[in-house]
Design goal:
Largest sheet: 6 strands, antiparallel
Number of helices: 11
Strand order of the largest sheet: 4-3-2-1-5-6
Number of domains: 2
Radius of gyration: 20 Å
Oligomer: single chain
Shape: globular
Length: 290
């Protein structure tokens, strides 16, 4: 996924004070909900026609002690965006698309890895609308109406109302999309905050729709049980990390080994646990994977 003038590469590097509780609370929400970002990324890789216009993770970066100057001539911590995201259950990998203000250990264009605690934000865009963007929402809340409009126009995306952050497109939940303000409309209906509990309880639409086709594919191509991705993860393990209960059940029914370990020691159960996919974990436990 390449960057453009409407990508995070045009967004300034953000340095929040260590005593900014509002920003840290937003980052904490981003970390806790990262699984929904990764689920969407996982299914995007299986789409014939891409649906995501942008998918990015904002990470927290600092130089190792030996590279820091005394006294410091710049911020010790910087928050910058990554694209072309990969995730193996332990680390997020991506391409850095911001230029650091003061850090020496990383530069724009580097392929970098961050741990879960370094995730500061995430966002993806479908149909011009932004999902996620917790710290971005805090920044927008601190802008005037004019500044906010300028910010949104610079990105080229619809960030919605301040304080309303959706995790998934409304149609995933069977909800209607928010009405746009048209030529003959008189105001805009105030959006209803998305029910995060409902989001957590629901299966991704593609997971539901692929259940029968996956079963047929495995029957027709039994070698699929031995195929693995670049991490050495089988289809079972990939689907466990994506939180696909339907996919995991099909794989187990077709004889995939729930105890199989990838070269890095990860199993389907450990991958599901890394993102807190409880239903998937329970199903794998039933299969003897714990």
């Amino acid at each position: 996924m390449s960057t453009s003038k409407n990508s995070p590469s045009e967004s300034p590097v953000f340095n929040s004070p260590s005593d900014d509780p509002q920003m840290e609370a937003a980052a904490q929400k981003a970390r806790h909900s990262f699984r929904f970002f990764w689920r969407e990324m996982s299914w995007e890789r299986r789409r014939i026609v891409p649906a995501l216009e942008l998918a990015a993770v904002k990470g927290t970066f600092s130089d190792p002690p030996e590279m820091r100057t005394e006294p410091s001539d710049g911020p010790e911590v910087e928050h910058m965006w990554l694209i072309d995201i990969d995730f193996d259950g332990r680390e997020v990998e991506g391409t850095l698309i911001n230029s650091p203000m003061a850090l020496k250990s990383v530069k724009e264009g580097d392929r970098v890895k961050i741990r879960g605690k370094q995730i500061f934000d995430w966002m993806y865009v479908v149909g011009g609308e932004v999902y996620g963007g917790f710290t971005v929402d805090v920044l927008r809340s601190r802008m005037s109406k004019g500044e906010r409009k300028e910010h949104d126009n610079a990105w080229g995306y619809d960030f919605g109302e301040v304080g309303t952050i959706n995790l998934v497109p409304p149609d995933y939940l069977g909800d209607a999309a928010s009405a746009k303000k048209g030529l003959f409309s008189f105001g805009k209906t105030k959006p209803t905050p998305q029910d995060y509990g409902k989001v957590a309880a629901m299966e991704h639409p593609m997971s539901i729709n692929m259940r029968s086709s996956l079963a047929e594919s495995i029957d027709e191509n039994p070698e699929m049980m031995r195929q693995a991705d670049d991490h050495g993860y089988t289809f079972l393990e990939q689907l466990a990390l994506a939180g696909s209960l339907d996919g995991v059940e099909v794989c187990l029914e077709k004889g995939f080994d729930p105890k199989h370990e990838a070269p890095n020691g990860m199993t389907a159960y450990r991958l599901a646990k890394s993102l807190g996919w409880k239903k998937v974990m329970e199903r794998l436990e039933q299969a003897g994977a714990a």
